[in-house]
């Protein structure tokens, strides 16, 4: 994101935190739900554990199964 928006790493991290806070507020206000609760989603993957390639592989396999 920093590169795409031409921001420093610190400014990009701040922008991400602010965006996440707005999304969380929106979900609380309009749906009375916790944005971070995985029970609110159909499919949740831990990209920190899987990596982006691992997560993409799981998604592709899941789609091909359907």
Cα separation of the termini:
32 Å
- Structure annotation, total helices: 3
Uncertain residue segments:
none
Structural class category: mainly alpha
Determine the strand fraction and express it as a percent band: under 5%
The radius of gyration computed from the alpha-carbon positions, rounded to a whole number of angstroms, is 15 Å
Number of domains: 2
Helix content: 55-70%
Quaternary structure of the protein: single chain
Name the overall outline: flat
Rounded mean pLDDT score: 94
The largest sheet is: none
The helix/strand order is HHH
Number of beta-strand segments: 0
Structure description:
The protein is an all-alpha fold and 66 residues long. The protein has two domains: 1-35, no CATH class; 41-66, no CATH class. Helix content is 70%, strand content 0%. The chain contains three helices and no strands. The radius of gyration is 15 Å and the shape is flat.
Concise description?
The chain is mainly alpha-helical and 66 residues long. The chain has helices at 2-5, 9-31, 47-65.
